[in-house]
Amino acid sequence: xxxxxxxxxKEKGEHFKIVQIxxxxxxxxxxxxxxNSQGIxxxxxxxxxxxxxxxxxxxxxxxxxxxxxEEYISRVRNQPLLKKYFEKFKIPPSKxxxxxxxxxxxxxxxxxxxxxxxxKAIYFAIxxxxxxxxxxxxxxxxRFSLYFIKESDxxxxxxxxxxxxxxxxxxxxxxxxxxxxDYSYDLEIQHLDRLFDINVTDVFLINHDENFxxxxxxxxxxxxxxxxxxxxxNTYENIPLxxxxxxxxxxxxxxQHSPWDEIDTPQAQEINAEYEITLKENRAKQxxxxxxxxxxxxxxxxxxxxxxxxxxxxxxxxxPNQEDLVWELYNGN
Length: 333
Prior knowledge:
Structural class: alpha+beta
């Protein structure tokens, strides 16, 4: 089965804020305004593509059924060399850390790469383009896309409170575990993963915040550093990110009955009043999500040669080879 694709800009515009870039002057305007990062970016080499994770692409195109994410994670976590790698570098082998490691070695994950650097995101979209091999087809197909989520919308997909609570959970569980001979670090990590699954939504932003490295660490290879990379998690099996963003928060907007509804006491009134405020805030967030928080710059491919000169990046800037790097330093380059 092939991956679903967009047929035209009108269809794509149902899920994105579309901005067409038809000239190098148009591109220069956005290039100059985004020299200082305004959010996060993702470049993709075709306007037709939807934003699927690599795990979703595997499921859809290969029609995988009865696949166990838990078994996949367990195999990685217990592979002897990788187990030693995480231990030696003091990387907590949580799901988040493991997904990050796998993502940058091409294995299927529920992560979607973004960058805080506009130029680097552009590079990913145009790195393999060769003008001599390109033949125009139509105005839609003859474009590539740069996706942009502005920083002021991060509150819709950020989960800092969840990570903060897990820091405390880890501290408490580590202390309690010392009194039980059967309790181990592996069990602690698995326990945290289970709690994490319960407490997060299907879509969330993963920043590389240093405050959370004792719970998880996704900043665990040099490519992430060079690419100014970070991730958005999408655990839906076959819903692309642009559609998932409108869906994942819906449950939080629905009124949920509680035993406090049947009690008429000052405490119950206070709890119910707080819930009403939260519900109102959640519904306001959902309205923002429904309006499409991803801007899609739709850029003509014929501009790519000039764009490559403008951004001035090479493969080694994005995919550093550590052996080459150290030899260049030795040779004074």
